[in-house]
Specification:
By secondary structure, the chain is mostly helical. The protein is built from ten helices and no strands.
Length: 189
Amino acid sequence: MLLLIPLGAGETTLRAPRATIAIVVLNALVFLWTARFDTARTAAAEGEITRVAEWSLRVAEQDAPGLAQRAGGYGSVFVFLERDPSWRQEVRSAELRERLEACLDDYRKIRSEHPFHRYGFVPADISLARLLAHQFLHAYFLHIGFNMLFLWTVGGLLELALGAAVFAPAYLVCGFVAALAHAAFYPGS
């Protein structure tokens, strides 16, 4: 694989792509802010809560046959617990109900504290703020590194051709379109 990095556009007078630089700097600042959140620890905590909730549903299934199977149809035990209110009546044990409610509360707390879950794009919860914010979230160093390398190489040339006044809004609009296309293909994700 050959990676070409354009160093110039062949013009005698080049100017710095100010909008591209601003977008790269903003992405870097957001990455530094989100990097302080331990994504691996969050995933581990979510995994543990998921195991407890799934085990509790399997135990509750002794009194409510088909409960765990129905939960499996939602793809996530927490999506099931949030979207199917009938489980509260089906789980007869108060202790299991309380444990499932506690798992759901813990899951919501973990999700609300992490910036990817707070500001990332969710097709089931489309908002202008999320449409804008998701464009600046990057999960790890290689993710932002390659995205910013591509933005620098292509964005700078596009900005040179279009001008900063057109390029910056076009960058944001393309991010909106990408997110809405994702939502169209994966509406329940």
